Amino acid sequence: MIRLMICCLLLTACSIAQEKYISSAEKDILIKNVTIVPMDTERIVPGQDVFVSKGKIVSVGNTGKIKTGDNIFIVDGTGKFLMPGLAEMHAHVPPENDMTAIEQTGFLFALKGITTIRGMLGHPLHLEYRKKVTSGEIVGPRFITSGPSFSGNTIKSTGDAVALVKAQKAAGYDFLKLHPGLTPETFAAMATTAKEVGIPFAGHVSYKVGVWSAIEAGYATIDHMDGFVESLVPGIQNIPESDAGIFAVFIGDKADENQIPKLISALKAKGIWVVPTECLPRRWFAAGDPAVLNAAPEMIYMKPETRNNWMNAKTNFQKNPKYNPAAIEKLIQIRQKILLECQKNGVGILLGSDAPQVFDVPGFSAHQELEYYVDAGLTPYQALVTGTVNVGRYLSRKDIGTVKNGSVADLILINANPLKDIKATRDIEGVMLAGKWMSKNYISQELKKLERK
């Protein structure tokens, strides 16, 4: 009877361990005999132990050589690869008064190895979410948030621009998000005031402002490569925005590729970071049956009404009289050339896919985005840099984006070498988020809970 009771207690303890993550704040964690992808240079280091305590990597060394205490949880890394967690630098969490929806979206990112997200459409409740994540009250990615966006709808005058900049700075948002519709005057008022109070701005480039003014003003990041292709089209100043389409989707085939070096030089000179969001044109604009995208396994995590909206968005876009599949393909090729030239010439690139957006599911689409960078000509290592090392550089955090002593314990354990095949990042065995270990079983259980029937 006593033995039976002990067995039952042990089984219960095992069940609890499988259902809950292991936190390095409570128990030290050793990832044993793993091959490290440190991301400091293009290399792998086999046969390593990684010791994590209180959310930090305390020690990295040859297997069996690191001293640990007794209160330790061991993860077997044999045959596996350990890389830094990824960042989604153009993410969205619900901009609404629903903390549950916000937490669930953030958690979905985390379960797929996205350990940092930058929220690109803010809401006052996001400040509370950021606080809860930072304190460890809830499990979620490191959260960088903008406030409600600056657009033609929210900013009607220079006074509006000045007031909103000061209000968002005072509220404690990390940066300002720009949407289309700003005029040269309201944009200038925003940019001047933002510099005065010390808050960066990022996002879209309004059509009437144009990329040259945007670069000169000193964006922190230009997202979607907005304004890039437009700047290459001869006579763009005489083309109405409605004829150009979003991101020059209807006129991109008219771009003069000989002007790309001028654009790259300006971005480099002003230190502008680029967040490509290649998932957007590749999955929304490009030709193809939306039903095929809608049938992807990851769509189970999106609400049926959201999926219907995405189906309608792609279907209606393809019905536009200006829609030309060949021109769209040319636009994508030009964007790929711009992205590759950014890489070749030292323009900073940050991983971002705009999830959730049309057929871009949080967490899943960041891995697809990496594959699009490789399609554009980046090596797997260069693509991974955009979501790891470059994020640390952008945030001025030397402890983010690498696997080394002193780094934050944001890690992904995968089954193959991502430097050989970028698709290896999808095959996840476990995720560590600020020192909290989530096993494959735990991830599967939690993903099941997030399914939307």
Tell me, briefly, the overall form: globular
**Quaternary state, please?**
single chain
> Tally the helices: what do you get?
16
Q: Structural class, from helix and strand content?
A: alpha/beta
Q: How would you characterize the largest beta sheet?
A: 9 strands, mixed
Report the strand count: 16
User: What are the low-pLDDT stretches, counting only 5+ consecutive residues below 50?
Assistant: 1-18
Would you give an account of this structure?
The protein is 39% helix and 17% strand. By secondary structure, the chain is of the alpha/beta class. The strands form 3 sheets. Strands 1, 2, 3, 4, 5, 6, 14, 15 and 16 form a 9-stranded mixed sheet that branches. α4 packs parallel to α5, α8 packs across α12 and α13 crosses α14. The protein is globular. The N terminus is likely disordered.
Short overview:
This protein has 453 residues and is an alpha/beta fold. The protein has helices at 2-19, 99-111, 124-135, 158-171, 184-197, 210-217, 241-244, 260-270, 279-285, 290-294, 304-319, 325-344, 364-375, 380-387, 389-394, 440-449, and strands at residues 22-23, 28-36, 45-53, 56-62, 72-76, 81-84, 86-91, 114-119, 142-145, 176-178, 201-203, 221-223, 273-275, 411-414, 428-433, 436-439.
